[in-house]
Every structure is written in C-alpha cells, then in structure tokens.
Amino acid sequence: MFKAKILLVGPCQAGKSVLANFLGDQTDILKSKYRPTVGVRILEFETSTGNGSDVEIELWDCSGSENYETCWPAMAYQADGVIIVYDPSNKNPTPSVEAFYNYFVASKGLKDTQCMIFTNCKGQDMDKITSPIPSVTAVTTDLEKDHGSITDDFKDFLKKVLTKMSAVQEREELDIIN
Any idea which UniProt keywords this protein has (predicted)? Predict the structure, then answer.
C-alpha cells in the first residue's frame, strides 16, 4: 500500500481546512466558525482510489498566512502532490495562487499532474471561473452543494499521484538491479 503526502495550500480563508476535514471524513465540516490554521495540521486516513487499490494519505492542511512562509520548506519536503485551494471572490489573495504553485510545485520538481486546483466557490456562481494556472487541472468546488464530485475529483487526482509514485519506485528498483 502506498503512503502519499498531499499538501493543501492556498491563501487564508480559502477553505483549506473545511476541505481537509471533508476529505479526511471529519465531523461538522460546515458548522464550525472560521479559525485560522496555525502553521500546519496533519490528517491521516486511508482511502480507495476506486480501482481496487487503497492508499494511506497524510494530508497537510497548511496555513495560508505569510507568517508561516519560513515553514514552507519543511511542509514541502517529500510531498507527493499539492492541492491549491482558493476563493475566486478574493481578487487579490496574498500570497497569490501563482506563488503557491511556483514554490510548492514548480520549484520542487513536481509535475503538473501532481497538482490540482480546487476553486472553492462557497455558494457563488461557478460558471465563469477560469483557472489561474492553465496547465494544472482545476475543479470548482462547493461543499455546501456537491460532495460527490469533490470526492471523485480527489480520487482522480490521487490516481495521477500514485501513477507517478509507482513510476519513481519502479525506476529506483531498476537502478538497484542494474
């Protein structure tokens, strides 16, 4: 069974913790009031990718506050995948979605298939939203309306991450043999 370290990053108040609680099957995901994440919160759980394989997930719910940028190297260390969460109603998030992508994905050598953008619409019109990073798969989410598609999108993302992890493991094993 693979163990995957997945980071949830994005600007403050984008909905990362609510999404983490939902994916980690925590309770009262929509009823609690906003409390900013201090540094990072790690949720561990098992899930199925739908094709018969289970995976252990280490989901790192990372604070979006610039106060914790000095922690980013430790958070990014050995990450297998990154989910960037943002709220499109926040027109000038700091740091920007692009800054999170550049640091946690591009500079760490992750492929675009190891990254996904969750546009958290929170009851807004979801029809006219474009991805801030066109090369990365982006999905619109609204936990208040549609739980099923979020789970499916997450499992599809995990399949891509596991494919990459499997290829890396196979290459390492071949290097040992040769």
Answer: GTP-binding, Nucleotide-binding
Residues 6+ positions from 29 with CB-CB distance below 8 Å: 18, 21, 22, 143
Which domains does the chain possess? 2-177 (3.40.50.300)
| Amino acid code (one letter) for 111 | K
Tens of pLDDT, residue by residue over 90-130, are: 877 778 899 999 999 999 999 999 999 998 877 666 666 77
Exposed, middle or buried by CB within 10 Å (0-12, 13-18, 19+), for 79? buried
Q: Which residues pair with 43 in a beta bridge?
A: 59
pTM confidence score: 0.89
pLDDT in tens, 52-66: 778 999 999 999 999
CA distances from 137 to 115, 128, 132 (A): 7, 16, 10
Q: Could you tell me where the beta strands, DSSP code E, fall in the chain?
A: 2-9, 40-48, 54-62, 81-86, 115-120, 137-141
**pLDDT at residue 58 in the model:** 96
